[in-house]
Write a structure and sequence with these properties.
It is built from 8 helices and 8 strands. Strand 7, helix 7 and strand 8 form a beta-alpha-beta unit. Helices cover 42% and strands 18% of the residues. The chain folds into 2 domains: 56 residues, Multidrug-efflux Transporter Regulator, Chain: A, Domain 2, CATH 1.10.1660.10; 129 residues, Response regulator (Rossmann fold, 3-Layer(aba) Sandwich). The N terminus is likely disordered. By secondary structure, it is α/β, with parallel strands linked by helices. The longest helix has 17 residues. The N and C termini lie far apart (57 Å).
Length: 202
């Protein structure tokens, strides 16, 4: 019979095993990317098999190993733009768990994001608002005014509240907004809606 203690690890041990920061581990636990429980003293204990699942996904480029390889025509092209590498890593993990087959590209600022969007023409752009150089507000304005990207689905994942967004000029009605940290269920809903529109459209 296996020792129950060996079936879970601490947050620090998990961060070493997955080579990410403690904050990343906390975000993954909060959003369901890692399964865990708390001791009576409030310390997280993360199930070892959940760690192993993440390691297996990494070996296959974050693609679920049980799924058949899709054709390029059935891949939902997504770009995530955020200057916080932890948030980009979280989006990468959550999209890897999606029932939708996703081809994900990441960018660390608004300028790089605009360049990659122009080059790759994604179906969905996930945009942070508070970034250096070109912020998310300016990105969305530029994309909305460009004929080749004006119909693209845009999702904002931000730490700003509604009042702060309004003070910065607001966002178009067609832009979806989710507060950080995004949950798997929230992102999955957007991915499925976008995939339905892209693959079922005329």
């Amino acid at each position: 019979m296996s020792d129950p203690v060996s079936q879970y690890v601490t947050s620090k041990q998990a961060s070493v095993m997955l080579d990410v920061s403690l904050r990343t581990i906390q975000l993954w636990v909060e959003n369901g990317a890692l399964r865990a429980w708390k001791t009576p003293g409030g310390h997280r204990r993360i199930f070892l098999d959940s760690i192993n699942e993440q390691l297996k996904q990494r070996k296959t480029g974050y693609s679920p190993p049980q799924k058949p390889r899709p054709s390029s025509h059935s891949l939902l092209k997504v770009i995530a733009v955020d200057d916080d590498p932890v948030q980009l890593e979280l989006v990468k993990v959550l999209t890897s768990r999606s029932a939708v087959e996703v081809s994900l590209i990441t960018a660390s600022d608004g300028y790089e994001g605009l360049v990659l969007i122009g080059k790759n023409k994604p179906d969905l752009a996930i945009i942070d608002l508070s970034m250096p150089n070109i912020n998310g507000f300016d990105m969305i304005r530029a994309l909305s005014q460009n004929e080749s990207t004006s119909a693209m689905k845009m999702l904002v994942i931000t730490g700003l509240n509604q009042q702060q967004i309004k003070m910065n000029g607001g966002l178009p009605d067609f832009v979806s907004v989710i507060s950080k940290p995004v949950s798997f269920e929230q992102l999955e809903t957007v991915l499925k809606q976008t995939a339905t529109a892209v693959f079922s459209g005329p």
